[in-house]
């Protein structure tokens, strides 16, 4: 699984609509509205590295209201909490 963190700058008047449109894209697991220089942070989780380009360049960048993106690829996950929940089959 490839995880990419996508920093998104949007038109200020469309932050909510842009976030909802990005969240609806297959491969985007979450979208956060944030403070600071960025408007949104999108978490992209896909199987292949080429899928990151497909999701970000071909889809996220095409959402109305998106002005720019910057993508960071995660090398390693250090928090096991989310991974344990994701792979739990409920046999407690």
Question: How would you sum up this structure, described in words?
Answer:
The protein has 3 helices and 4 strands. The longest helix is centred in the first third of the chain and has 9 residues, at 15-23. The protein has one domain (2-87): Alpha-Beta Plaits. It has a 4-stranded antiparallel beta sheet with strand order 2-3-1-4. Helices cover 27% and strands 33% of the residues. The chain has 92 residues and is of the alpha+beta class. It is globular and about 35 Å long.
Give a brief rundown of this model.
This protein has three helices and four strands, in the order βαββαβα. It has helices spanning about 15-25, 50-55, 80-85; strands at about 1-10, 30-35, 40-45, 65-75.
Give the domain tally: 1
- CATH level 1 name: Alpha Beta
Largest sheet: 4 strands, antiparallel
Number of helices: 3
Looking at CATH, which topology would you report?
Alpha-Beta Plaits
Known CATH architecture:
2-Layer Sandwich
Question: Structural class of the helix and strand makeup?
Answer: alpha+beta
Helix content: 25-40%
Summed over residues and divided by their number, the pLDDT gives a mean of 90
The SSE order reads EHEEHEH
**Shape annotation:** globular
- Tell me the distance between the termini: 26 Å
Strand order of the largest sheet: 2-3-1-4
Give a count of the beta strands, DSSP E runs of length 2 or more: 4
Keywords:
3 helices; single chain; 33% strand; Alpha-Beta Plaits; alpha+beta; 92 residues
Protein topology:
Layout: E1 2-10, H1 15-23, E2 28-33, E3 40-46, H2 49-56, E4 66-73, H3 80-87
Antiparallel strand pairs: 1-3, 1-4, 2-3
């Amino acid at each position: 699984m490839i995880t990419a963190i996508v920093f998104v700058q949007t038109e200020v008047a469309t932050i909510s609509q842009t976030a909802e449109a990005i969240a609806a894209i297959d491969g985007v697991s979450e979208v956060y509205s944030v403070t600071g220089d960025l408007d949104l942070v999108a978490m992209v989780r896909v199987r292949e590295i080429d899928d990151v380009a497909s999701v970000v360049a071909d889809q996220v960048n095409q959402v109305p209201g998106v002005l720019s993106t910057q993508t960071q690829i995660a090398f390693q996950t250090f928090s096991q909490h989310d991974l344990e929940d994701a792979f739990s089959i409920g046999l407690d």
